């Protein structure tokens, strides 16, 4: 057996999903198998090498799989759709890894399902490669995210704005349960469904809460806490999700649905890449507030479970939503202290962080390089010209540096310890958007996956210097800059 399946979602009531097999394709070809991940999951790597093209295209449904499409709803750009669901994704089943952790194995782009509406159930190669690259980069950066197990081409065209090669992405997730999954049942007045889902989520993701006095309130609070921590981590590395609809927010706390997502180069809190986000709803700096808005929608679905008295339920849920704001702020500031090398805490730290960010914005400084070069500077005064060179007018950073050094003089760490700590949180390498686009273009135009492979190699060690790949640290030249990214739809 290639996969030691142990399926649980399929045991939930029938209205939670639609059984659905993948639709075979004409000429599957394996672009990539993530062998280390396959091994971690306890899969049969040999069998996957041999049959990967057939399995990951959906042509061969592995033994023990119980393929299904999950039902969910969601707010998309603020408007509610009571029925979305997996329109092009098929859950093959679940496996329990070597550490006893349960994971979903899902094919994305494996053909139509009862939730496809007008869609073709397929994915184009570009979004598949983007999701592969960025989810693995997130993993290496240490940020909770779904992972990439495999990518295949189908040998069939998909019709978008242009005709593109079709592909299927295999995703591994702690689960694919979304805020929108709760909304699906709540929108139908199906409180039993909401309760069954909440119980399942507690069992699978938050087992300690079974003992809680108010388990559903505790669940809401725990999900909020994970999202606060997650979104703070996004901001720390310049990540912009792009489509933070409630159907794209997990209850496990993993980043999911890498559509038009991208990393910011020059620091600007208003940065937006997604072609469909015309009003900047999901801009870089809006993400924490949108997280809170989405959690409020989750809280609404849980109200009947939180307290039998509606007013009390609302008060309790509101307290969680308020706490999210504080939790986010605390997580964000803690991470920013780490980024500038502060081990201790002082009242003025927030101002010091904000002064740097304001300067970076005014001076068009690259978000990633500033912090990496500051890490170098922490251990070596000779690195100051490189740091200053990140700013359009290098001299403008001197007053901030003086403040920073003055603050460091009162901080407990030695310079050597500080440099090491800073380098472990400030990456040298991120999936720069122009590099991602170049890798996709080479694959689409020439069937050349060497840039895709090179990017995966570089991004697997984002906190190491890797001098042979120094060019991958560089921001785009003006002519290389990518201003827009597109969804997979
Ligand atoms: P996404 O934009 O990928 O988060 O998807 C939003 C909704 O549209 C989900 O219900 C998807 O399953 C559905 N969807 C996206 N693309 C397709 C497609 N090509 N065919 C069918 N459904 C799709
Ligand atoms: Mg989605």
Reconstruct the topology from this structure.
Elements: E1 17-19, E2 29-33, H1 35-40, H2 45-57, E3 68-70, E4 74-76, E5 79-81, E6 89-96, E7 102-108, E8 123-124, H3 125-141, E9 147-159, E10 163-173, H4 179-186, H5 191-205, H6 215-237, E11 239-240, E12 262-263, H7 287-306, H8 310-339, H9 349-362, H10 367-379, H11 384-388, H12 398-408, H13 415-423, H14 433-446, H15 450-459
Helix pairs in contact: 3-14, 3-15, 4-5, 4-7, 5-7, 6-7, 6-8, 7-8, 10-13, 14-15
Bound molecules: adenosine monophosphate and magnesium ion.
Binding site for ATP: 85, 87-88, 108, 120-121, 171, 178, 257
Keywords: ATP-binding, Magnesium, Manganese, Metal-binding, Nucleotide-binding, Nucleotidyltransferase, Transferase
Family: Belongs to the SELO family.
Q: What can you tell me about this protein's structure?
A:
The protein has 489 residues and is of the alpha+beta class. 43% of the residues lie in helices and 13% in strands. It has helices at 35-40, 45-57, 125-141, 179-186, 191-205, 215-237, 287-306, 310-339, 349-362, 367-379, 384-388, 398-408, 415-423, 433-446, 450-459; strands at residues 17-19, 29-33, 68-70, 74-76, 79-81, 89-96, 102-108, 123-124, 147-159, 163-173, 239-240, 262-263. The strands form four sheets. Strands 2, 6, 7, 8, 9 and 10 form a six-stranded antiparallel sheet that branches. Strand 9 and strand 10 (163-173) form a beta hairpin. Helix 6 (215-237) packs antiparallel against helix 7 (287-306) and helix 10 (367-379) runs antiparallel to helix 13 (415-423). Bound molecules: adenosine monophosphate and magnesium ion. InterPro entries: SelO. It comes from Rhizobium aethiopicum.
């Amino acid at each position: 057996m290639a996969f030691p399946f142990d399926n649980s979602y399929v045991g939930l009531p029938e209205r939670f999903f639609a059984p659905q097999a993948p639709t075979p394709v004409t000429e599957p070809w394996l672009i990539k198998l993530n062998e280390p991940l396959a091994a971690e999951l306890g899969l049969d790597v040999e069998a996957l090498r041999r049959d990967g093209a057939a399995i990951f295209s959906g042509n061969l449904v592995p033994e023990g799989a119980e393929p299904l499409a999950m039902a969910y709803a969601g707010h998309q750009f603020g408007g509610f759709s009571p029925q979305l669901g997996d329109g092009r994704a098929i859950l093959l089943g679940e496996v329990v890894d070597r550490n006893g952790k349960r994971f979903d194995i899902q094919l994305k782009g494996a053909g139509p399902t009862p939730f496809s509406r007008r869609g073709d159930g397929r994915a184009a190669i570009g979004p598949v490669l983007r999701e592969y690259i960025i989810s693995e980069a997130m993993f290496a950066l240490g940020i909770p995210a779904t992972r990439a197990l495999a990518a295949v081409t189908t040998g069939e065209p998909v019709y978008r704005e242009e005709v593109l090669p079709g592909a299927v992405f295999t995703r591994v997730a702690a689960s694919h349960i979304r805020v929108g999954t709760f909304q699906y049942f709540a929108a139908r007045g199906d409180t039993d469904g909401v309760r069954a889902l909440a119980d399942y989520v507690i069992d699978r993701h938050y087992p300690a809460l079974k003992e809680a006095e108010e388990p559903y309130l505790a669940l809401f609070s725990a999900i909020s806490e994970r999202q606060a921590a997650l979104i703070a981590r996004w901001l720390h590395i310049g990540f912009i999700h792009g489509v933070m609809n409630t159907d794209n927010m997990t209850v496990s706390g993993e980043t999911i649905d890498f559509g038009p997502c991208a990393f910011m180069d020059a620091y600007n809190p208003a940065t937006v890449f997604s072609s469909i986000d015309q009003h900047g709803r999901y801009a870089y700096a809006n993400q924490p507030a949108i997280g809170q808005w989405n959690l409020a929608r989750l809280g609404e679905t849980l109200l009947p479970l939180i307290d039998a008295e509606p007013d009390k339920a609302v008060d309790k849920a509101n307290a969680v939503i308020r706490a999210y704001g504080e939790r986010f702020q605390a997580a964000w500031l803690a991470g920013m202290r780490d980024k500038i090398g502060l081990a201790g805490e002082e009242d003025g730290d927030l101002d010091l962080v904000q002064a740097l960010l304001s300067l970076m914005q005014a001076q068009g400084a690259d978000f990633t390089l500033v912090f990496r070069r500051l890490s170098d500077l922490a251990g070596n005064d000779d690195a100051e010209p490189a740091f200053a060179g990140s700013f359009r007018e290098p001299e403008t950073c001197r007053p901030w540096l003086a403040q920073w050094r003055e603050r460091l003089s009162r901080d407990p760490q030695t310079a050597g310890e500080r440099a090491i700590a800073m380098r472990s949180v400030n990456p040298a390498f991120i999936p720069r958007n122009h590099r991602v686009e170049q890798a996709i273009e080479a694959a689409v135009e020439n069937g050349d996956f060497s840039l895709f492979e090179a990017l995966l190699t570089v991004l697997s060690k984002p906190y190491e210097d890797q001098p042979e790949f120094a060019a991958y640290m560089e921001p785009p030249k003006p002519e290389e800059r990518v201003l827009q990214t597109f969804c997979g739809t």
